[in-house]
Amino acid sequence: MMMPKRTKHRKQMRGRMTGESYNASAVSFGAIGLQATGRGYVSARQIEAARRVINRTLKRGGKTWIRIFPDKPITKRPAETRMGKGKGSVDSWVAPILPGRVLYEIDGVDEDVATKALTLAGYKLPVKTKIIKRSLII
């Protein structure tokens, strides 16, 4: 599973998820991409599950880029523990997703195969997504 090698602070506060994503909002590497239209947290397990679906659908053809990384720690207290005694230990890692963020990109395969792979990957994610193509900038 994906997680940072090291972080400046072991535990983070949740923060607010307002606004839209401006960086990583266009297809930069591949020909077709999966863009988030909703907001939420995508866990490292969900990123890996979607990646596996893409690789299985492409049958080792083409190239895939993962444009998100789970760098936010989520803490959890043990079950049946009384309140107090501080914040829980780090349980998992998530990537905060804002609308407009490109999650995955594919290149080197037919457009219909890439569309099928990204559609199946979108089912594995907790945010709403849409498929976008690379726009030629002249």
Task: Describe this protein's structure.
The chain has helices at 44-58, 111-123, and strands spanning 32-36, 40-43, 63-66, 72-76, 89-97, 102-107, 129-133. The chain is an alpha+beta fold and 138 residues long. It has a domain at 41-77 and 87-133: Aldehyde Oxidoreductase, domain 3 (Alpha-Beta Complex). A 4-stranded antiparallel sheet has the order 3-6-1-7, covered by helices on one side. It has a 3-stranded antiparallel sheet with strand order 2-5-4. Helix 1 (44-58) runs antiparallel to helix 2. The longest helix is centred in the middle third of the chain and has 15 residues, at 44-58. The radius of gyration is 17 Å and the shape is elongated.
Task: Show the helix and strand layout.
Blueprint: E1 32-36, E2 40-43, H1 44-58, E3 63-66, E4 72-76, E5 89-97, E6 102-107, H2 111-123, E7 129-133
Antiparallel strand pairs: 1-6, 1-7, 2-5, 3-6, 4-5
Coarse morphology: elongated
Output the helix-strand order: EEHEEEEHE
Structural class by sheet pairing and helices: alpha+beta
- Percent of residues in β-strands: 25-35%
